[in-house]
């Protein structure tokens, strides 16, 4: 197995994008718990995100969600973030919270509703020009709850038409990433349920469109790393939404439910050329900290990605290939497991310290007093959450 | 196969309990859509429930959810319902919407939180005395999202202790039914995840405790009718929460996702003695009409249960047993399918008409003008939903 | 809803292909039970298949599995089948039972093993020329059991190369259909696990390649009719392998586990132009009659497909579209369910009799004495099964 | 976190029982691959098992499967094993490979078939007296493939009756462990599908009966460690069948598919008192080495159990409890993960060497030449597998 030192340099440019909404309240249909210190504004969300980057050096970008993060002056917001060492990243559209979208948005039977949803994406693109964002991420809640409620085929055709219109509006440096999701909030069918659908749709659009893979959006038993390998092979893996799940779209901390799966995913990313300075794959988090503290929840998440990336880089690739070619099942598996079972945490702590960062970011954040300060300062106002 | 006439009399006493909350708004974590005419009060919910019973003759009871349906004068509420031909049914407790319950209720590590949850159940029992309800239904959101977050074993012991305290407070005619649920809102573990846990807990309590089976609360692939048969055999099937699902706890209209499964469930109910005047099994609905109209959604639901009950009663039981004993796989399956594929709807329409009911309750309700009237009248106020 | 008579003519040309191997023994890894009368030769399999067609008028083709059904003289076999009113259909290749394929066939790291598997397909194509078959169906057992055992990406590239070589050998009238399967016999990853992979591979091949959808080869909760609609939209649905399943690839009688799902699938087939004289979608069965009698098992299967096709044709499409466009969830669902709940069996019996067929094919076959005759006659020899 | 040295002594008495059938050939319904050196006799299986114990010091017992391992002289077999340092362990009955059991064994409608199956268990008990085994393990293939095929309720009653008869024949030191399985080889329903059924059945039998938990026998998403905790709490966890799975009952090497799950299971074992000299929980493997070498497959398996046991013992229990009580979600989770991410392999290697064992058992076995020797010597005869 390679020594940690030999792979350390590959960790240098790792950058994970944080979702602004992870710092607001979230929950289930049963209850959204509020917490002292929760941001009331996008500026407070960005301030919290800056903490994650300060203690880890891993998170230089914040993704926006429109309209939750709408402001009057995006140039000012960009400067605000920049002053904290952050860039504004992916712009996420929202076509699921307006009453008009009850029966669909880009797929709706009513052309006026479709146009409203298209216009929303035009607005997002306009914001991207101002924020300097390159990626427009589309996740659709479109779907139906009952067989017969909608015309599956017609909806797919309308989706293609709507996406084509949006795609045409993209700026030269822009990308469109289309996220798929197996179920929820629609229960019978979703209009972009699987990577195949997203792939077919973005392929029809053109080179600036690719697939967003959210690790929580698959049926039970799905081999996600296979999809990673396949999309990289097809040149259509645009971005990740990292999180983890035990059953549904739980949106738990990435790596929390199945760390070995995260390792395998990152191994295929590395194997397939999706990691490193030449790759255009964007790494984002998409998580809901329903019961745990949000800032340390994000810190824990980016560390998990870093730790598993390090393990993936440690795989002895030539030895693995030799064992695979020899039909040595246990040997090949053992080479992979060697990397997974290696405790990279002490190495990473030392590496962090060598770069002027805290060896233990979780402890350093806890000791910083930031959490107590925001709990004291952020009194009154409306805590941010889904819908605000 | 028996003629419809020979089983018609068995349909006479069918009674399905409606959940008061089905008439309020519901949705997903992404969005709760509101609808014109949605009730603002428990009285309006009961009025809507009365419509379901008026057009179907199948739904003479309404289940309450505390605190959503709290009133000052339960005797008055009972009279209000009675005047509309309805009785007040199961009282459902709620230990998932108070901030205190973020980390559990009856299982919480803090004795004060447990006592608060126990006191809530004492209040529910007090309400039952006033409403004439016999069943206290406990569904717990208790659980954890992350491995290590809670002590699974200790939580189970505390659950047993809390339930014992509540059980001791039940009135002579009261029952406690303990619902299990595979996942949601907790994602890593729920404290009553399966029928085995509910069975073990209620068996330890005593004869007045039994299991509530919600048809949407199982892992994929679970054979629910087996559990029905087993619980009836063990004398511990207390009640049903009927609904249907494609993937998770979708809470769709019962029979909508898999009508054949509903048929098989009702066949095992009949087979095991869970149907008819001598049975104590309570049939309730627990559904969320997120996108469809609520009153006709409930009408459709009780009709679905009735139609599948009729089909289950039509199974030629002696012929089925003979085929089973003969090892005639296709013959036995064919006898069951004969009943399932029989279109009982014309028979039921005629039967309804013979009893002074509309032959087509869906059409009759639509023609009644009730929906337009409540849409006009129920202006202002706060539409009922989860949490109010 | 349309009257049955108005759709009856559309049933006339329905043709379902039977798999030769359905008449041989099958089972699980735990046990393969044998049965009196099981065929010993491909001729006996074809004779049994002819019974299915004789009693239903629905099954004029038999699919072959190579090498299980290899003969010296395919022209003679074609005449043998023709004399019984049958044509020889799809040729199924087998790259999972030779010791050489332990670690893969078309994806193997060893070029010699890949060539062996390619040569096998060349042989299949040669047989197709002799049998008059048009479809070459490729289902691969290729995959791995342990992470690291194989290189997912490299295997996919080799698959593409192998398929390209096979594709180039197809005759002018030939098609290649590539089947996907979620899991089994490989457990960690399969090389063609989902429709997306099959679609990406066959799209790269060309117009003569399309996807084979086996209804039992999906993850739990997958909406199969969506895939049907999508593949029809993309022009890449080549054929079906019909069967049903409760959990895994159970290969039960089609429609047995979830008749409503079969209905929904056939509705999307009709909706998307996959049914009728202009469609090139092939309807095949792929089932294992482990515990039930095989010939009546096949009769039951083709009848199930016919009955659900009739129901799908009965859907009032204009009314459905109107309800969908109006956002009438319950109305639209009700229109679909009306067709599903209609008991088409008496209509189909009368229709069959009008065409000189038995009204009740199951009873007619049972009364024919064929089963007793083959049980008596087929003594000695080696009963056919997987592997022979 | 405790130092490794402080938990090392608790590893001393760990003993994992090997299944004799793991050394024979196994596979899927598609193919069973044979391998040079595969045992032809139970003596050769035991010799192979002795290798696992020799290199790991962890596997002093071999479980037998009757009739696969039947011999004329069990006393001689016991001495044979003893001479190799092994004891004979659990006796596994087989009621799935005789033609008589096509429609059930202990649940069959025919009393004669039930008696045949009961007599088989009597024979197993007789063998236990001779081999010194204490555990009779019953796993049933009983179930049905089609709704209606069998009477679920009646089968359960007959199961109870049959088990009662078998239980009455147990010797004073004997135990009966009843294994449950979600699906396969029956597809529609299995007669002991879940822990609740096994628990209800063994509770009715008495103190000598308990549940066997096979880690591969659950629905997707099932929290297995919860069941472990619950059964330990109820005093009814008799034994484990360890293996791992990605989707169905894959019977892969334990810990291979989800090492974190294995860790969580072993943590609950330790937490609930299921580990150590006072526990009666038996640890067995039940795996199928379809594509990997069998002896090193077993070595890898027992090492995986040992490594995860060490990690589970390393959990800082007081700190964990404190964090749980404080509602510190991330803190509690972090304490658990600290133990999981600790690389115990170097510690275990040193510990092994201190006890005269090879530090790297996989490498030591590979270097021993045993595999080459058996490949050379074991020529001719009939390789052992399921069914022989």
TrEMBL record, chains A, B, C, D:
GO terms for biological process: L-lyxose metabolic process; rhamnose catabolic process. InterPro entries: L-rhamnose_isomerase, Rhamnose_iso-rel, Xyl_isomerase-like_sf. Keywords: Isomerase, Manganese, Metal-binding. GO terms for molecular function: L-rhamnose isomerase activity; metal ion binding. It comes from the Bacteria. Its EC number is 5.3.1.14. This is L-rhamnose isomerase. It comes from Cryobacterium melibiosiphilum. The gene is rhaI.
């Amino acid at each position: 197995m390679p020594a940690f030192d030999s792979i350390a340099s590959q960790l240098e440019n790792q950058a994970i994008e944080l979702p602004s909404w992870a710092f607001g309240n979230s929950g289930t249909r049963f209850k959204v718990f509020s917490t002292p210190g929760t941001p009331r504004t996008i500026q407070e969300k960005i301030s919290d995100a800056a903490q994650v980057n300060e203690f880890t050096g891993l998170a230089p970008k914040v993704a926006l969600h429109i309209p939750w993060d709408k402001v009057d002056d995006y140039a000012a917001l960009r400067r605000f973030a920049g002053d904290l060492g952050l860039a504004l990243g992916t712009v996420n559209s929202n076509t699921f919270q307006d009453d008009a979208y009850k029966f669909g948005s880009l797929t709706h039977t009513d052309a006026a509703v479709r146009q409203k949803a298209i216009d929303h994406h035009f607005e997002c693109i306009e914001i991207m020009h101002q924020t300097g964002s390159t990626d427009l991420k589309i996740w659709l809640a479109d779907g139906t709850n009952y067989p017969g409620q909608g015309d599956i085929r017609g909806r797919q055709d309308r989706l293609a038409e709507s996406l084509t219109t949006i795609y045409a509006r993209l700026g030269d440096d822009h990308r469109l990433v289309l996220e798929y999701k197996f179920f929820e909030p629609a229960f019978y069918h979703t209009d972009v349920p699987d990577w195949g659908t997203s792939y077919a749709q973005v392929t029809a659009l053109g080179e600036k469109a690719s697939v967003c893979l959210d690790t929580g959006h698959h049926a039970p038993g799905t081999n996600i790393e296979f999809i990673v390998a396949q999309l990289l092979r097809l040149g259509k893996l645009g971005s990740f939404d990292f999180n983890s799940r035990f059953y549904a779209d739980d949106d738990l901390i990435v790596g929390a439910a199945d760390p070995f799966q995260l390792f395998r995913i990152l191994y295929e990313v590395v194997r397939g050329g999706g990691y490193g300075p030449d790759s255009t794959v964007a790494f984002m988090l998409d998580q809901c900290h329903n019961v745990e503290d949000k800032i340390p929840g994000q810190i824990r998440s980016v560390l998990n990605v870093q730790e598993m990336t390090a393990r993936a880089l440690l795989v002895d690739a030539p030895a693995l290939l030799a064992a695979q070619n020899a039909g040595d099942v246990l040997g090949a598996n053992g080479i992979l497991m060697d990397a997974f079972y290696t405790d990279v945490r002490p190495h990473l702590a030392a590496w962090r310290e060598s770069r002027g960062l805290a060896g233990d970011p979780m402890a350093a954040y806890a000791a910083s007093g930031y959490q107590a300060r925001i709990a004291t300062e952020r009194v009154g106002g409306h805590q941010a959450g889904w819908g605000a």
